[in-house]
Amino acid sequence: MSTSPTTPDASAAGSEDAPNLDFAGTTPYEDYVQADVLTHLQHLRSDDPGEMVFLVTTQVMELWFTVIVHEWETASRALREDRVPVAMDALQRSVYELESLNASWKPLARLTPAQFNAYRAALGEGSGFQSAMYRRMEFLLGEKSASMLVPHRGAPRVHAELEKALHEPSLYDEVLRLLARRGLPVPAAVLDRDLSQRYEPSPEVEAVWADIYADRDQHSELVRLGEALTDVGELVWRWRNDHLVATRRAMGSKTGTGGSAGVAWLEKRARKNVFPELWTARSHV
Ligand code: HEM
């Protein structure tokens, strides 16, 4: 039996506790969520039934990147203003979001080369390497590189956002500035570094983290901050490695659609440690 607003049935519109069915325009849900926009952005390029989940997984990951960038920008701002609890909340949320992001590898993790080949040609030169939101994540982690702006020259808004992010302090720069304001001996060369360059690990910063971790009583808040950052670093490292393994399964050692050496190039990227001194300091505590 129909449940349309014009011919409501008893279970839907008839009782007092039923939801509203009648809206003058689009539903308030649609006005907020824009589900109609979101669910009509799947423009497939092949007839292969497996392409849909490839495209949607990529879109889902782009949405998670967007949320995570938002959290890390919130955390960076809060650290700059010495509001550590606000930063901690944002970092903790980002840890759960990174776990969800990583869980979304599931549908693509076991693609065979034949399955991937069924739509690979349709991707042309398209590659996640060209994801501007992923690049903003990397910039926030301190992995800055001006050359990563080049692919986005043709997209003014994206290029402007990336250029701003390139010159802003990363999340980790804000953490180190906070440590310096708390009286810890972060070297001036680290604090005054050229922000548009990749962050290079410093033995003095490693020693600062080792001292923080060695004295939990005096530095309990900073230890918690260090651990939240370590969670973030671990989960980003896991994303890179899950991506690497999925790629290895789907295409072996072929070159990537983005023109790189493929797996060999991704292996190098995946080897990098996020927030390096938080890992190396552990040997000295
Ligand atoms: C199993 C399917 C996938 C394969 C085979 C694959 C393959 C590759 C390859 C070979 C590269 C290196 C650049 C190139 O030459 O293209 C790359 C980079 C990248 N891919 Fe994927 N990819 C897959 C799925 C995804 C998904 C779902 C995302 C989500 C957005 C993604 C995001 C990225 C990013 C962000 C990079 C750049 C990494 C960096 O800059 O370190 N990939 N991918």
Automatic annotation (TrEMBL):
Per UniProt, the cofactor note for this protein states:
Binds 1 heme group per subunit.
- Annotated residues for binding of heme: 243
**Which residues of the sequence carry a binding annotation for substrate?**
120, 257
Q: Does the record bear Protease in its keywords?
A: no
Pathway stated in the Swiss-Prot or TrEMBL entry: Amino-acid degradation; L-tryptophan degradation via kynurenine pathway; L-kynurenine from L-tryptophan: step 1/2
Query: What keywords would UniProt list here?
Result: Dioxygenase, Heme, Iron, Metal-binding, Oxidoreductase, Tryptophan catabolism
Q: Where is this region: Disordered?
A: 1-25
Q: Does the keyword Metal-binding apply?
A: yes
What Gene3D superfamilies is this protein classified in?
Answer: 1.20.58.480
Highest taxon, organism lineage: Bacteria
Q: Which residues form a coiled coil?
A: none
State the Pfam families in the record: Trp_dioxygenase
Enzymatic reactions: L-tryptophan + O2 = N-formyl-L-kynurenine
* Obligatory cofactor(s): heme
EC identifiers of the protein: 1.13.11.11
The protein's job, in short, is: Heme-dependent dioxygenase that catalyzes the oxidative cleavage of the L-tryptophan (L-Trp) pyrrole ring and converts L-tryptophan to N-formyl-L-kynurenine. Catalyzes the oxidative cleavage of the indole moiety.
User: Known PANTHER family for this protein?
Assistant: TRYPTOPHAN 2,3-DIOXYGENASE
- Give the protein family: Belongs to the tryptophan 2,3-dioxygenase family.
Assembly and partners are described as:
Homotetramer.
For this entry, the protein name equals Tryptophan 2,3-dioxygenase
Q: Which gene encodes it?
A: kynA
